[in-house]
Amino acid sequence: QLVESGGGLVQAGGSLRLSCTYSGFDADDYLIAWFRQAPGKEREAVACLSGTDYSTRYADSVEGRFTISRDNRRNTVYLQMRSLIPEDTAVYYCAAEFAPGIRASLIREFDHWGQGTQVTVSS
């Protein structure tokens, strides 16, 4: 199970931290990623973290502004978002895929999804 939280309304230039609390699986064997979908647009993978080696990958659109990380004690994966722009407005989803030994990738087929959390960046 994946449960997102932390979304909200923020002004451009601000920051937000999204949380994805996971349960029911060993995250060391999974890729966990953040996706987003804006109205009228296709879903976009923005960041991925490998449970095997903690490698990360980011979409070009968020590289240098977003950071994905994991807290094992809290069974939570975070997406720290900085320097937010209106184009970051979207519903953000957490996703997981069983992928032991696999490095982070944005082009995998994720099969476990959370319910999403809305992020709105005002100009």
| Overall pLDDT metric | 97
Number of strands: 11
What is the element string, with H for helices and E for strands?
A: EEEEEEEEEEE
Beta fraction of the residues? over 45%
User: Helix/strand-derived class?
Assistant: mainly beta
Principal-axes shape call: globular
Radius of gyration (Å): 13 Å
Distance between the termini: 34 Å
Low-confidence stretches: none
Tell me the major beta sheet: 7 strands, mixed
Count of DSSP-assigned helices = 0
User: What is the helix content?
Assistant: under 10%
Describe this structure in words.
The chain is mainly β and 123 residues long. It has strands at 2-5, 8-11, 16-22, 30-37, 44-50, 56-58, 66-71, 76-81, 90-98, 112-113, 117-122. Strands 2, 4, 5, 6, 9, 10 and 11 form a seven-stranded mixed sheet that branches. A four-stranded antiparallel sheet has the order 1-3-8-7, with no helix packed on it. A hairpin with a 6-residue loop joins strand 4 and strand 5. The protein is globular and about 40 Å long. It starts with a strand and ends with a strand. The model has no long low-confidence stretch (mean pLDDT 97).
